[in-house]
Write a structure and sequence with these properties.
- By secondary structure, this protein is of the alpha+beta class.
- It folds into 2 domains: 76 residues, Glutaredoxin; 123 residues, Glutathione S-transferase Yfyf (Class Pi), Chain A, domain 2, CATH 1.20.1050.10.
- Helices cover 54% and strands 6% of the residues.
- It contains 10 helices and 4 strands; from the N terminus they run E-H-E-H-E-E-H-H-H-H-H-H-H-H.
- The chain has a 4-stranded mixed beta sheet, covered by helices on one side.
- It is globular, with a radius of gyration of 17 Å.
Length: 228
């Protein structure tokens, strides 16, 4: 299998953690795609994933899976022992619900803040984002506030349960963790009073799969190209 990715960015980091948790990282050929150079927005990459986003997993039969949730489902179920996406219908339902909330209310919101109110994306990638328009920065800042509100929501969740979707580490935790990493890189710190969220982040950051493959920071050369 081939994983098209850019190490150190949030969605590729999600899949790196999944691969480590499932002990599949040695079965993967990693293909480094120049995200800041917008290599993922043009041919030949868009022939594999028309949406032009990372990561994408190419199977041995040529099938290409995109979207981190779909890739996670596939990898987690390869051995018939899903530990990240749920075993029972109830577990699956709760995990997918909380994963989507983490994606929408933290990870995606941080992304919007970063793209529209944060630092430069560099000339190659900026061409594929919305150009300057009235209210662009204000909208991005509003998304930043939404991300902070999402953090507050998950702090409440984590006061009552050890992990985002219940008693076990799951895909939902991976998504939220990637969102918090991205927030840190974008300059959106977790508010100090969110003690449960901060304790959870410290705890899951020590898990072997996260330590092995998480990649908490953007690549230094990418940060320089983005104007940081």
């Amino acid at each position: 299998m081939k994983l098209y990715e850019r190490p150190g960015f949030p969605n590729p980091a999600r899949i790196r953690i999944v691969l480590a948790a499932k002990q599949l990282d040695q079965a993967i050929e990693y293909v480094n795609v120049d995200l800041i150079g917008a290599e993922h927005k043009v041919l030949p990459y868009v022939s594999k994933n028309p949406l032009g986003v990372l990561p994408a997993l190419e199977l041995d039969d040529g099938t290409v899976l995109a979207e981190s949730t779909a890739i996670t489902e596939y990898l987690d179920n390869l051995d018939g022992n899903p530990v990240l996406t749920g075993r029972t219908p109830r577990e699956k339902g709760v995990i997918h619900m909380m994963q989507r909330r983490a994606e929408s209310e933290v990870l995606d919101a941080v992304g919007h803040y970063f793209h529209y109110a944060g630092g430069s994306l560099g000339p190659m990638l900026q061409a594929f984002k919305s150009p300057d328009w009235a209210g662009r920065k204000e909208w991005g800042e509003r998304e930043g506030r939404r991300a902070i509100a999402g953090m507050r929501y998950f702090d409440e969740v984590l006061r009552a349960t050890p992990y985002v979707a219940g008693e076990r580490f799951s895909m939902a935790d991976i998504t939220l963790l990637a969102g918090l990493w991205f927030a840190g890189a974008a300059g959106l710190a977790v508010p100090e009073e969110l003690a449960s969220l901060k304790e959870w982040q410290a705890r899951v950051s020590e898990l072997p799969a996260v330590q092995q493959r998480g990649g908490q920071n953007f690549l230094p050369e990418d940060l320089k190209r983005m104007g940081f």
